[in-house]
Amino acid sequence: MGGDFGPRITVPAIVQALKTQQDLRVLLFGRQTDIQSLLPSPADYPVDRLVVMHCEDVIGMADSPLVALRGKKNTSLRVMLEAVRNGEADGCVSAGNTGALMAISRQVLRTTDCIDRPAIFSALPRSDGSHTYVLDLGANVGCDSEQLYQFARMGRAVVKVLEGNPSPRIALLNIGSEDIKGNDQVKLAHELIRQDAQLNYVGFVEGSDLFTDKADVVVCDGFVGNVALKTVEGLARYIIGEVRNVFAGDWLGRIIGWLIRPYWRRIEARLNPGRYNGAALIGLKGVVVKSHGNAGELEFLRAVQLASEYVTKQLSIRIEQEL
Amino acid sequence: MGGDFGPRITVPAIVQALKTQQDLRVLLFGRQTDIQSLLPSPADYPVDRLVVMHCEDVIGMADSPLVALRGKKNTSLRVMLEAVRNGEADGCVSAGNTGALMAISRQVLRTTDCIDRPAIFSALPRSDGSHTYVLDLGANVGCDSEQLYQFARMGRAVVKVLEGNPSPRIALLNIGSEDIKGNDQVKLAHELIRQDAQLNYVGFVEGSDLFTDKADVVVCDGFVGNVALKTVEGLARYIIGEVRNVFAGDWLGRIIGWLIRPYWRRIEARLNPGRYNGAALIGLKGVVVKSHGNAGELEFLRAVQLASEYVTKQLSIRIEQEL
Fold first, then answer.
1. How confident is the model over B130-178, as pLDDT tens digits?
2. What's residue A180's pLDDT?
3. Which H helix or E strand runs over A133?
4. How far is CA B304 from each of CA A79, B2, B35, B60, rounded to the nearest angstrom?
5. Mean per-residue pLDDT for A39-48?
6. Per-domain residue ranges of chain A
7. Which CATH number is A116-275 given?
8. Which of A43, A254, A268, B109 has the most Cβ atoms closer than 10 angstroms to its Cβ?
9. pLDDT of residue A241
10. Selection from A59, A273, A45 nearest residue B178 by Cα
11. How close, in Å, is residue A8 to chain B by CA atoms?
12. Which of A206, A256, A271 sits opposite B239 (nearest CB)?
């Protein structure tokens, strides 16, 4: 039910996911009539692998996490998370209210041992063809040094599990590379991470280093990480638009623009924010993937595929083992 | 003397600036022997418009602002700012330590009336061909709501002065557009800005909105702003590199890459981080421009031109009048 477009986007995306992935089974939590009206006729999708779980209540995008936590008990978000906790589902995806997803996940699923607060991570492309894992991307709007330190430990675990890299380089996002730079939380976290011999800590990096191979894991406060990630998306969209404009400017441009299409598509594919939609909420006893609120059908599909991949790789359990 | 490269970059850039701008006169503060050895022979530049002001001491990039403030009195940074205060210079540029520049500027020049802390601003390109002015970009690592509110007022003044826009739209950078989103400082600043009838406040925007025409001024904490700005630079550099790689991949790509060069140069010019080098420290009784520490010759030249433009437009005095 969540996100800017609700079932109009999520239902067709799920139908698509079921068609492309034969071993996928889906429980859809939300208002049955809304969902049913958007499903194709039973002959046109694998009905045996989709179950609609009716929930009358929905958490709005503007509801505060506290209201979501203490309010109605039959919301689609909460009942979905209970299904994960009870083993009825192996993982879950939501495009809804991030604050509510975070708060109810902590209450229903509980955090991984020795982790206080879950974090959202995603992987950004970089110049050597590999990825930089960044966390937190918005689950926590204010983080103390201990939380940043825990994010560093979780980041190490994620890259070990997903990339098979036994000793990923960890960095802290700051506004300069010198020791004196930054706010108190960052300076204190710098000391905490440095003292942990298990972590391959490479020090401070700046925003411009996210796309270079200076570090494999970049740790930051959720506010800063969310702004950085969304700035990346905004700039990518702006550049794609600018390129279209430049080549639409005159008839020669249009011809050349047509010639370069196969090349440009490769670049667009790397830049396309939708390609990176879906970010896991880690540090929880269960696989939870957050989709962008403004995700379209293809982007939401990508978030579902990501959740499925993380379930297969047992991401949540293996992070707990690593910690 | 500042920045990653010191006089090796700044001296040739200044010589270039003197050659291209006939009404420019420059005082260079730093170690005379270092500077002299990098100047061309007197016949090759306008010697009458350049004076070297010898300063024995230099503030290092890793010195803390406190050390810079209380330490040696004959540093190039301090003596330069004193020259601005005493009217010997109309404005100044530094590629040095941002924290020290901020601290000593406040002490020597003093802040504009009713402004507690100066802020760094810059203008980002956006899809409608205009610019979004963003502040603070790193002068303050932690800002309370009152400071954010003052940044909003200064941002309005800057856009009025530089763009002639009588009522620029002001927004606060946040991690969501709903009222409940964000940390305490941002939520409180939201109320303060909203209550000021002089400000054309449009509410919260996200990182992705920096490149759209949702707002003319975007206000944020210096830590967040600095990360966002440097992320933009890093991504721009990454994309330029990716495009080069794609077209260098095969012989057809190389031919097409050659054909599109004039078009791509136009895009590169808009993306080139150096084009946006130089950001003014506003809220001070004097024109102070901060160049990136890693600026090359052309980028530093751009910062000098910007300072010259802001002096001509009387930016500092006009902001004070607007406030």
1. 899 999 999 998 899 999 999 999 999 999 999 999 999 999 999 987 7
2. 73
3. strand A131-135
4. 60, 14, 17, 21
5. 93
6. 1-114+283-313, 116-275
7. 3.40.718.10
8. B109
9. 84
10. A59
11. 21
12. A271
pLDDT at A52 over 80: yes
Res A273: pLDDT? 59
Do B1-115+283-313 and B116-275 share a fold? yes
Q: Residues of B numbered 240-299 whose beta carbons fall under 8 angstroms of chain A's beta carbons: which are they?
A: 241-243, 246-247, 253, 256, 259-260, 263, 266-267, 270-271
CB contact under 8 A, B263 and A271: no
Structure tokens that stand for A113 in this block: 């041992």
Q: What is the pLDDT of residue B88?
A: 97
Between helix B251-259 and helix A251-259 the angle, nearest 10°, is: 160
Q: Could you tell me which residues are beta bridge partners of residue A121?
A: A135, A280
Give the model's pLDDT for residue A175.
Answer: 92
**What's the pLDDT at B112?**
94
Interface of A with B in 122-181 (CB under 8 A): 125-127, 138, 141-142, 173, 175-176, 178-181
**Which one, of B108, B116, B147, lies nearest residue B286 by Cα?**
B108
Q: Which residues of B touch A233 (CB under 8 A)?
A: 207-208
Q: Can you give the pLDDT at residue B251?
A: 84
Gap between the Cα atoms of B274 and B47, Å rounded:
27
What is the pLDDT confidence band of residue A274, given thresholds at 50, 70 and 90?
low
User: What's the CATH number for B1-115+283-313?
Assistant: 3.40.718.10
The mean pLDDT value for B108-127 works out to 92
Mutate to test the interface with A, among B238, B254, B258, B271 (most CBs of A within 10 A): B238
Question: Looking at the complex, does the CB of residue A206 fall below 8 Å from at least one CB of chain B?
Answer: yes
**The pTM is what?**
0.91
Closest partner residue to A231 (CB to CB) among B62, B232, B263 is: B232
Token pair 């209970």 is at which residue? Answer: A82
Which residue in A126, A220, A231 is closest to B208 by CB distance?
A231
Asked if the model's pLDDT at residue B319 lies above 90, the reply is yes
In this complex, which of B173, B227, B267 lies closest to A207 when CB atoms are compared? B227
Contacting residues of B for A206, CB less than 8 Å apart: 226-227, 230, 234
Cα(A144)–Cα(A149) distance, integer angstroms:
9
The pLDDT score that the predictor gives to residue B275 is 64
